Known about the structure:
Radius of gyration: 16 Å
Helix content: 40-55%
Distance between the termini: 43 Å
Strand content: 5-15%
Amino acid sequence: MQSSPMLDFVTTQAQLILDTFYEAVVACGRKPPFKPSVIVATTPDATRYDPANHAIILVPYEVLQPPRRAAMDRFAAIGTLSLSGREQYIKVFNNLLVAHELGHWLQEMAQQTLNRWQAEYQANQIMVAFWREYPAAPPAAATERRLANFVAQSPNMPTRFQIIQA
């Protein structure tokens, strides 16, 4: 995939998040055996932590298939930040969730035995804690607004599927 100003921006922002997260881990007195890197996927996939490559895999909006782009348009329409589908995707999958994926890196470092539910729940807790501690890494909307945008739900969603917000 050719580099573009937007792709460079997304990669740079993710690297800033990774650097801030890594520095916070080191500041806690930990000495990780490696620092993860950022890799940009060239095919549609999922944003994730890849333990084999010790990397956060970012999937750029540009490689998404039309149905996924349409889904992002719908997600953005119910969001709280008045973003386009593209902007929503970048804010969530190329920015906010980088800290979630780094939570999986921490789990790897701790050699935790977790089932899928526990791993995802804990990574979400780590993500929220990170963004509350470092709301301006990189500069963005306030953490509470960003998290509210992330969990926004359609008013048509059945009650049993709605996230309970305190």
